[in-house]
Amino acid sequence: MKRIFYFVVAFSIVMAACTKKDEKKAEVKNEAVKVKIETASMQEIDQIYEFTSTVDAAVKNFISSAGGTRIEKIWVEVGQKVRKGQRLVTMENTNLNTAQTQLANLQNEVKRMEALYASGGISKQQLDQIKTQEEVTKRNIRNLESNITLTSPISGVITMRNFDNGDVSGAQPILQVMQISPVKLKFNINETFYNKVKLGMSVKTKVDVFGDEQFSGKISLIAPTIDPLTRTFTVEAQFANGNQKLRPGMFGRVELNLGKAQKVIVSDKAIIKQSGTNNKYVFIEKNGIVEYRQVELGRRMGDKYELLSGVNNGENVVVSGQTSLLNGKKVIVVK
After folding, report:
1. How far apart are the first and last CA of the chain?
2. Whole-model pTM above 0.85?
3. Please, which residues bridge with residue 253 across strands?
């Protein structure tokens, strides 16, 4: 009987100790957390949007020769700067020599036929036929002469070469020359902004190659139609690129200011990134209780964020003490 009595007493002591531990845990769980808050405010801010694009040359020209003519000499290399009218390629003139010989023979024949016509030996029709052949040969010679020496139609840089000296030029162009001062960037904008985009508006761009360095340009073209599939329209911005740092093919991010708007602004300290996702949250404090709420971020401005949704003007957001918070947790606001 004594053993049973001692066992009952020991069990009661253990149960009492466990009850006290559970009560302490409950007290800790329900204990209010000290936090600091800031009030979300509505401010008028610039509506700056970013669009991705690729740098492109203002003008691109292919240098080709009519027909399958053999290349005598290419005078430039890829990467070389050229000026408008500069000689780029010399083609073989075998066909030209043949055509010039034909013209000389036709001119002699025309003189002979004119003499015959004057004496009544041939008809007017026969004389006109030989004169027509002479004119056709002259036009052919002018065409061949324009294709013997190929010049650059613009000032720019050689960006492509498809043949070597002695090759017979085919369907492909021999060279490509690009004008890279200025350059242009094309990008697509949602149709809701169509009435806000104007020719001459200032834009800025950054390219990955040069980090945070900005380049200034202006909108030079606005497409007159909307793409029915994407609900966007194409805009082209031109950049002077006097130092030629921007090169065709570079990946760029264009920033365009589309006016001002009233937006809710909060401290960056209030933003919580959910682990494993790209979702962003804040804790909203009201009457000593916090609510865990998802938000959509806009542009970052120093130590502040523009919020596109999730928080209303005048609501209190927690900026310190979030690590101990859960949805519905009691809090004490401290200065």
Report:
1. 63
2. no
3. 52, 206
